[in-house]
Amino acid sequence: MKYFKLFFIITLLVLISFISFSCCCLISEYYNSIEDSSTEEESNQRYNSIKAELSDPSDYYISPEEEEDFYRSLGSIYSGEELGEVTADMEKLKSLYPKGFFIIVKTAPLYMSGFE
Protein backbone atom coordinates (compact mmCIF):
# COMPACT_ATOMS: atom_id res chain seq x y z
CA MET A 1 0.00 0.00 0.00
CA LYS A 2 2.89 2.28 0.81
CA TYR A 3 4.33 1.87 -2.71
CA PHE A 4 0.94 2.40 -4.27
CA LYS A 5 0.60 5.81 -2.56
CA LEU A 6 4.10 6.76 -3.65
CA PHE A 7 3.41 5.62 -7.22
CA PHE A 8 0.11 7.54 -7.22
CA ILE A 9 1.78 10.75 -5.99
CA ILE A 10 4.59 10.47 -8.55
CA THR A 11 2.05 9.84 -11.32
CA LEU A 12 0.04 12.89 -10.27
CA LEU A 13 3.17 15.05 -10.22
CA VAL A 14 4.15 13.86 -13.68
CA LEU A 15 0.65 14.57 -15.01
CA ILE A 16 0.58 18.02 -13.43
CA SER A 17 4.02 18.79 -14.87
CA PHE A 18 2.95 17.60 -18.30
CA ILE A 19 -0.28 19.64 -18.22
CA SER A 20 1.47 22.79 -17.05
CA PHE A 21 4.14 22.37 -19.74
CA SER A 22 1.43 21.92 -22.39
CA CYS A 23 -0.38 25.02 -21.19
CA CYS A 24 2.83 27.03 -21.30
CA CYS A 25 3.46 25.89 -24.87
CA LEU A 26 -0.08 26.82 -25.91
CA ILE A 27 0.19 30.23 -24.28
CA SER A 28 3.56 30.83 -25.91
CA GLU A 29 2.22 29.78 -29.32
CA TYR A 30 -0.81 32.05 -28.91
CA TYR A 31 1.39 35.00 -27.94
CA ASN A 32 3.69 34.42 -30.93
CA SER A 33 0.74 34.23 -33.33
CA ILE A 34 -0.57 37.57 -32.05
CA GLU A 35 2.88 39.10 -32.40
CA ASP A 36 3.33 37.69 -35.93
CA SER A 37 -0.04 38.98 -37.12
CA SER A 38 0.62 42.48 -35.78
CA THR A 39 4.06 42.51 -37.41
CA GLU A 40 2.53 41.34 -40.69
CA GLU A 41 -0.14 44.06 -40.50
CA GLU A 42 2.49 46.72 -39.89
CA SER A 43 4.63 45.56 -42.80
CA ASN A 44 1.56 45.45 -45.09
CA GLN A 45 0.69 49.02 -44.10
CA ARG A 46 4.25 50.15 -44.75
CA TYR A 47 4.33 48.30 -48.08
CA ASN A 48 1.02 49.86 -49.16
CA SER A 49 2.21 53.38 -48.33
CA ILE A 50 5.50 52.82 -50.16
CA LYS A 51 3.66 51.24 -53.10
CA ALA A 52 1.33 54.25 -53.32
CA GLU A 53 4.29 56.61 -53.28
CA LEU A 54 6.25 54.67 -55.89
CA SER A 55 3.30 54.19 -58.24
CA ASP A 56 2.62 57.93 -58.56
CA PRO A 57 3.66 58.77 -62.14
CA SER A 58 3.08 62.54 -61.88
CA ASP A 59 6.76 63.43 -61.41
CA TYR A 60 8.03 61.14 -64.17
CA TYR A 61 6.71 62.29 -67.53
CA ILE A 62 7.80 60.38 -70.60
CA SER A 63 6.66 61.65 -73.97
CA PRO A 64 5.00 59.15 -76.32
CA GLU A 65 7.89 59.66 -78.76
CA GLU A 66 10.48 58.76 -76.11
CA GLU A 67 8.52 55.65 -75.17
CA GLU A 68 8.13 54.65 -78.81
CA ASP A 69 11.86 55.12 -79.43
CA PHE A 70 12.60 53.03 -76.36
CA TYR A 71 10.43 50.13 -77.54
CA ARG A 72 11.90 50.43 -81.04
CA SER A 73 15.37 50.14 -79.50
CA LEU A 74 14.24 47.04 -77.63
CA GLY A 75 13.09 45.65 -80.97
CA SER A 76 16.65 45.95 -82.28
CA ILE A 77 17.95 43.86 -79.36
CA TYR A 78 15.20 41.29 -78.89
CA SER A 79 13.08 39.51 -81.44
CA GLY A 80 9.90 37.48 -81.53
CA GLU A 81 8.72 35.98 -78.28
CA GLU A 82 11.51 37.55 -76.22
CA LEU A 83 10.46 41.02 -77.36
CA GLY A 84 6.87 40.31 -76.29
CA GLU A 85 8.01 39.16 -72.85
CA VAL A 86 10.31 42.14 -72.35
CA THR A 87 7.60 44.56 -73.49
CA ALA A 88 5.07 43.00 -71.10
CA ASP A 89 7.58 43.22 -68.25
CA MET A 90 8.29 46.86 -69.05
CA GLU A 91 4.56 47.64 -69.02
CA LYS A 92 4.27 46.02 -65.57
CA LEU A 93 7.24 48.04 -64.39
CA LYS A 94 5.66 51.19 -65.79
CA SER A 95 2.47 50.65 -63.77
CA LEU A 96 4.12 49.46 -60.54
CA TYR A 97 7.23 51.63 -60.44
CA PRO A 98 7.02 54.66 -62.75
CA LYS A 99 10.28 56.11 -61.43
CA GLY A 100 12.18 52.96 -62.42
CA PHE A 101 10.55 52.93 -65.85
CA PHE A 102 11.36 56.64 -66.23
CA ILE A 103 15.03 56.04 -65.38
CA ILE A 104 15.29 53.13 -67.81
CA VAL A 105 13.64 55.00 -70.68
CA LYS A 106 15.72 58.13 -70.11
CA THR A 107 19.06 56.33 -69.79
CA ALA A 108 18.54 53.48 -72.28
CA PRO A 109 19.43 55.52 -75.39
CA LEU A 110 22.87 56.16 -73.89
CA TYR A 111 23.59 52.44 -73.58
CA MET A 112 21.56 50.92 -76.43
CA SER A 113 23.46 52.72 -79.16
CA GLY A 114 26.09 49.98 -78.98
CA PHE A 115 23.49 47.32 -79.86
CA GLU A 116 22.15 48.95 -83.02
Features:
mainly alpha, single chain
Q: Helix segment count? A: 4
What is the CA-based Rg, rounded?
Answer: 31 Å
Order of helices and strands: HHHH
Gross morphology = rod-shaped
In whole angstroms, the N-to-C terminal distance is 99 Å
Helix and strand composition category: mainly alpha
Low-pLDDT residue spans: none
Q: How many structural units, i.e. domains?
A: 2
**DSSP strand count:** 0
Biggest beta sheet summary: none
Provide the residue-averaged pLDDT: 74
Q: In percent, how helical is the residue content?
A: over 70%
- Percent of sequence in beta strands: under 5%
Description:
With 116 residues, the chain is an all-alpha fold. The chain folds into 2 domains: 1-54; 58-112, no CATH class. It is 85% helix and 0% strand. The protein is built from 4 helices and no strands. Helix 2 (64-77) packs across helix 4 (98-112) and helix 3 packs across helix 4 (98-112). The longest helix is centred in the first third of the chain and has 53 residues, at 2-54. The chain is rod-shaped and about 100 Å long. The relative contact order is 0.08.
Overview in brief:
This protein has 116 residues and is mostly helical. It is built from four helices and no strands.
What's the layout of helices and strands?
Blueprint: H1 2-54, H2 64-77, H3 80-96, H4 98-112
